């Protein structure tokens, strides 16, 4: 969507088949914007894939708290807007 820089109304599109070049025009004021028939690409630029840095490093994992997941299991359920433990199994 394009808008008129003079009055702010939405511009209408008129195709080139009416004998005039394609254009956007404002229905309420005399603003007209003619469209160019060709798109010009000035510079081609290769995109380079960046290397991703890890968010959590190995040093962070050494200092992180650990649990023994084999000893207990919790089952959670969303009740309304709150998450609640519905049952807990201890092995």
UniProtKB/TrEMBL annotation:
SMART domains: RPOL9
Pfam families: Zn_ribbon_RPB9
Domain DNA-directed RNA polymerase II subunit RPB9-like zinc ribbon: 2-56
One BP annotation, GO: DNA-templated transcription
Keyword terms: Metal-binding, Transcription, Zinc
Molecular-function GO term, any one: metal ion binding
UniProt keyword annotation of Ubl conjugation present: no
Protein family (similarity comment): Belongs to the archaeal RpoM/eukaryotic RPA12/RPB9/RPC11 RNA polymerase family.
Name of this chain's protein: DNA-directed RNA polymerase II subunit RPB9-like zinc ribbon domain-containing protein
Lineage: Eukaryota, Viridiplantae, Streptophyta, Embryophyta, Tracheophyta
């Amino acid at each position: 969507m394009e808008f008129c820089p003079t009055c702010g109304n939405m511009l209408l599109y008129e195709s080139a088949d009416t004998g005039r070049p394609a254009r956007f025009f404002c229905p309420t004021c005399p603003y007209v914007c003619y469209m160019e028939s060709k798109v010009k690409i000035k510079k081609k630029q290769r995109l380079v894939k960046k290397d991703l840095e890890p968010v959590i490093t190995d040093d962070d994992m050494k200092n992180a708290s650990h649990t023994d997941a084999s000893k207990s299991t919790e089952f959670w359920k969303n009740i309304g807007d709150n998450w609640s433990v519905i049952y807990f199994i201890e092995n």
